Model the fold of this input.
Amino acid sequence: MAPSKAETPQETIHVELGARSYDILIRRGLLKDIGAELTRLRCAGKVGVVTDRNLAGHYLKPVTRVLKAAGYTVVPIVLPPGERTKTLRAISTVMDALVNARFERSSTLLALGGGVIGDITGFAAAIYQRGISFVQVPTSLVAQVDSSVGGKTGVDHPKGKNLIGAFNQPRAVFIDPATLRTLPPREWVAGLAEVIKYGVIEDQAFFEYLEQHMGPILKLDDAPVAHIVKRSCEIKAQVVSEDEREADRRRILNFGHTIGHALESLGGYRGLIHGEAVAVGMVYEADLARHLGHCDQDVVTRVRSLVEAAGLPARLPNVTFSALWNAMQQDKKVSAGTVYCVVPDRIGSVRVVPLAKAQTRAWFEAVRVREAGFRTVKKKQSR
Ligand SMILES: NC(=O)c1ccc[n+]([C@@H]2O[C@H](COP(=O)([O-])OP(=O)(O)OC[C@H]3O[C@@H](n4cnc5c(N)ncnc54)[C@H](O)[C@@H]3O)[C@@H](O)[C@H]2O)c1
Ligand SMILES: [Zn+2]
Done:
């Protein structure tokens, strides 16, 4: 288990969804109280702990120990790490394990891992015997601030990400920020892209906080890390409560993702990882917003500066307009052939607009000319 530091007070965020409401608990050291928490939720009998091999080395033994101490029968289900695991084959593996261990309707699944494990576990819980309970114990920054909250679960299809799945809310989300200490640095920084996103879409003061505290955040100081996890969860919980199934308002969470997902798929999921692609996407969607007259240059400059301060990529890779536009149309957020994009009008406020191809092409060509000029000047200066 991660080095135990002084424990911080517990934060509780309520996700209001009527009969499907639940709490997000955030506390350093929470992992060792997971057994008591499940008892408090009246989970009974068997607990299937779904995790990946990277996580298993760090956390499976201690988590199993505390669950057993609380009287649970624990069935570990360890999958290979990474996005490539997020397939129907993994669901089948989980189903086999549950059937073999005679899981019942009253049994519980516990997702111990990043977004991949959370998405797989939530979907498995939705379909085993037509639905059993599950709890999220997110261990990556992406999972703690984004994927564990909101109930979107599922797996990828060879033809596209997240094409197979279900809305399925967890019974609770247990976040122990101490687990972030074992997260690889690249994954940690990638998660910061989603954190920055919350500032842009909803909370100017939070954006300013990030501008002022990026140094201590990058050093993983306890207080700022706890704050960014909490504030991100609050914003996500609020947006999801207002629009559980993404009919409208929830779409603002896709800021940076129209271009980001396109870049991710053009890289064949091998180039930029998700958060990195979203970082580039946020910078260029802000620039597109400026081009379309929704915001001024200051918004673009601040988004770019914060992305760079976090150590995230902020430059559009070498893609053609038609490749980018085609990839943007593959996104499942496209509706009736129209590509939608979330554009800021200022820091802390965004709207969703349809994109016309001709306008987007004009913007793209202007970016290319500007950046080619910028590179030539830089080259000359460096001689
Ligand atoms: N459901 C949603 O609303 C939603 C939202 C955002 C992202 N997602 C999904 O989440 C996935 C990305 O999540 P992710 O970035 O967490 O990826 P991930 O689950 O692959 O985790 C990233 C890597 O970090 C490792 N890891 C995680 N926590 C660790 C820890 N504490 N210590 C050491 N290693 C650790 C994992 O083993 C993995 O190798 C994507 O599949 C994406 O589609 C879902
Ligand atoms: Zn994302």
